[in-house]
Amino acid sequence: MALACFGAAPAFAQDTAQPAPGPGRGYQLGLPQSGILTIQPERLFSESAFGKRVEREMEAEGAVLTAENRRIEAELRREELELTERRSEMEPQAFRALADAFDQKVQDTRRRQEQKLREINQMGEEARREFISASLPVLQQILRETGAGAILDHASVFLSADAADITSLAIARIDAVLGDGAAQEDGDR
């Protein structure tokens, strides 16, 4: 009798380990079999075609701004040297007025260039929001297909099986739907 009970236990455990497949349970090949999935949001964006395009655009804008900053810096340095050379030929009040005007010009220029940098960063943040918004239907589809109840940020999960991470799957599917996103942005303009 005891032997029969012990013999039946492994069979019972095997039967209950795999719930019966049903609609929305996600028992398709290549999909995780987990009630909770994880995703790496930074990797999702940066490794997607959309994210790579945005990164290239931001780098290009940043390079233009850097070149502009260097040009402006050289011009201001020349102007400062000319002002310094003229100092001995000028009345102190006249020199002070020119020096104050130059300082104001430097501060105004710095503010303009910092605003341009903020705009480039804002462009990246807006692109991320657009990406997440456009990606939600794909992520919801994966959620439905797997039968999972939630997708959590991988970084906030203490412990999980690697199989629960859907980042690579999501990147492939999002790329198939969105591509690099340039067509959507051109349509918005």
TrEMBL record:
Gene3D superfamilies reported in the protein's UniProt record: Skp domain (3.30.910.20)
Name this polypeptide is given: OmpH family outer membrane protein
Keyword field contains Coiled coil: yes
Coiled-coil regions, chain positions: 62-130
Keywords: Coiled coil
A molecular function (GO) term: unfolded protein binding
Organism for this UniProt entry: Leisingera caerulea
InterPro entries: Chaperone_Skp, Skp_dom_sf
Pfam families: OmpH
Keyword Cell inner membrane applies: no
